[in-house]
Amino acid sequence: MANLYQYQNTSMVELSLPTEPQNPKRRYSVPKPEELPKSNTKDLMIVLIQVFMAEAPRGIILPTLSPYIQSTGISNTDLFLGLAVSAFSIGRLISAYPFGYLADSTGSSRFALQIATVIVIISNTIFAFAGSWNSQFAPWAIVISRFFVGFGSGTLGVSRAFMAKISSASERTRYITWNTLAQYAGFSLTPMLAEGISRFIPHANTQTKYGLIPGLAISGLSVCMLLLLCIMRETDLEDAVYNKLEDSKEEKQKDLELQHVGKQGAQKLFYGFILYFILNFSLRGVLGVAETYGGTEFQSYFPNDPNRVDRSSEFFFYLGMGGIFFYFIIPSLAKLLTDFCTLVLGIVSLAVGSILMLPYLSGNSFAIFVNAMVLIWSMGSPITQTLTISTYSQMMGSKPQGAAMGWLTTAGSLGRILFPIICGVNLGAGAIVNVVTCVLSLLLVILFRLVYVD
Questions:
Q1: How many Cα atoms are found within 13 Å in the side-chain-facing hemisphere of 105?
Q2: Higher-confidence position of 23 and 146
Q3: More confident residue, 17 or 145
Q4: Mean pLDDT, range 345-367, rounded to an integer
Q5: Domains observed in the chain
């Protein structure tokens, strides 16, 4: 973290100007995926699959974690539900920066991803069998296993740095969108996976259906992921990023303008990091509230339905499909409205959804609950998750970004740790905190925009 404070005394050229290759006529021109060399396209696809797999352990147990904890016979289910959700984020928090630093220091993402995948395999296997252990220790075994699952999933900084490495600043939003789309899909679409597998085991008991199947499913898929990582290249991807194109007068003029930004540009980068760290903390925390209680709240509307857990899986699947739709239109929105206006739209969506979640407004209205979840889960989260990463990544230019992306990932994990704990105390308190958080985030974004106008 100390290195970030040095930004104030560093020139903008040092911070964000692209580093020229030895050949002065080689310029940044990032091809589309289909235009990348075949080997680099393969690596890109492997990293995107790994991003999906990093989020799958969180998503697959979204509707089943609460009944899995209940099956252990513990009385205080809400407390252990909050602890289990937070434990995952604590593990990710601890590992995010080390994994990012490892990728930066070695110049390769593969080794860090391999270590993380092995941890995920072991910890998910423990989670699968934890519910069948001694009833007093079983809830704690679930919480501890979720911690190590989160630790192994703390590779988002590595994947984001990879996307930054193979893209120019002007293409950053598109590449980061692919990354966050894979992340969102892993989180939002996998709740249906466990339900689909359980249909082939019709007489499975509660612990098998809600713990054993999700845990072993992720372990098995992670083994396949490990095999894919073995064929990923260790070499630097510079050749995928630079095309041999002549410098245009316009590009040269832009470089000259950047070289004269000076101290103000350095301050913009420094305070921009603080802003986007806060935004990742607060806005990911808002999603953490919906993640913690969304499944439980949905199931509460169907108390007499024996298939209410399966129905909640389908509900989150449809929310995820809506979110994927928004991911596909984010680049177009950013061009039409600018990145700033699109980010504001995402924050407002989270704020309105959080207001609808307030108990005295939602009451027992299922329609209001659904609209609130759509605004938070399917609209606000995809937009803010993409823009809070891509915008700062654009500001950094071609600097190595593994450590910086690791810190931003850490911020998101912190939010997902603290906000679910608040929910564990009171859902109404969590909704109120969400509303206040969104309003303050919006004010900070507007203030930064006024001070550092592009």
A1: 8
A2: 146
A3: 145
A4: 86
A5: 2-17+37-233+251-451 (1.20.1250.20)
